[in-house]
Amino acid sequence: MNISSLTRYSNLLVVPLYSTPPTTTTVRCSSANNIAIEGCNLNFSFVANQANAVPVPILKDCSLRIPSGQFWMLLGPNGCGKSTLLKILAGLLNPTSGTVFVNEPKSFVFQNPDHQVVMPTVDSDVAFGLGKFNLTNDEVISRVSNALHAVGLSDYMKRSVQTLSGGQKQRVAIAGALAEACKVLLLDELTTFLDETDQVAVLKAVRNSLDTSAEVTALWVTHRLEELEYADGAIYMEDGKVVMHGDAASMRSFIEDKQSVYIKQINS
Ligand SMILES: Nc1ncnc2c1ncn2[C@@H]1O[C@H](COP(=O)(O)OP(=O)(O)OP(=O)(O)O)[C@@H](O)[C@H]1O
Fold it and tell me: What are the start-end ranges of the H helices in the chain?
């Protein structure tokens, strides 16, 4: 199922990146108009249980800024806070402090492909969210067909969703968001449950969706570093903090440096 048109956002705040020390990146809030996703000084804490109401900090002063029309990845080890940050950007969680701006409409696609599809056939699922737009039948058909084309599923229009692979279901969910003219796709570890062929197909579908429409921006949570080759930029988190924020080439060398330090440590 797509959660589309989530409405909570703060005022537009924006930000040039300023020069960065070697292992951390800081994003400063100011103003710019080509930014699709922005978080400024986001903190988030959970209260673990009512008996012990001491908040546990999960996100620590996280800032990020993603230009319109780009495919960015949110990387980092298990438990560092990626999904929490994504849910705050989606409006599914409220930050303890800090501000968020995300272009509307936005759509959140979940990790489990079986939670994505609600209708019996591919075309009816993609059309599911279009009822609110008061479109003619021809407009609905055109939107569904263009969206399925963008994700490489033009030949699947009349297929039963029950017969789709996990990756195909993810692509149907993305097509549903595109059909609704969604401007921001927030994608939470979509490749976790998929085999390698499906993983690549979903990545290519997102890449192609952005290449087809300059209006769409995507943020993709993953811990698979090899997926970086499809991205324009990336954010690397550790222990609730954003430690690197930059284009894909800078991120690759940052991660290679990190890996070589780690290899030296385990060999010494
Ligand atoms: N509802 C919750 N209550 C308490 N702690 C939580 C809750 N949800 C997440 N956490 C904790 O917050 C931290 C960050 O979790 P999050 O799911 O954002 O990390 P992640 O980087 O997405 O991890 P993964 O890659 O394993 O999915 C973890 O330590 C997790 O245990």
Answer: 82-90, 122-127, 137-150, 166-179, 196-212, 248-267
Specify whether the CB–CB gap between 75 and 234 falls below 8 A.
yes
Q: Coil, helix or strand for 245?
A: strand
pLDDT tens digits for range 62-105: 999 999 999 999 999 999 999 999 999 999 999 999 999 999 99
pLDDT tens per residue across span 242-268: 999 999 999 999 988 887 776 666 666
Pocket of ligand 1 (CB under 6 A): 46, 58, 76, 78-84, 223
Centre of ligand 1 from the C-alpha of residue 241, in Å: 13
- φ, ψ of residue 44 to 5 degrees: the values are -150, 130
Measured from the Cα of 87, ligand 1's closest atom is 18
Ligand 1 mean position, distance from CA 118 (Å): 27
ipTM at complex level: 0.96
Q: Dig out the tokens for 89 from the structure.
A: 């950007």
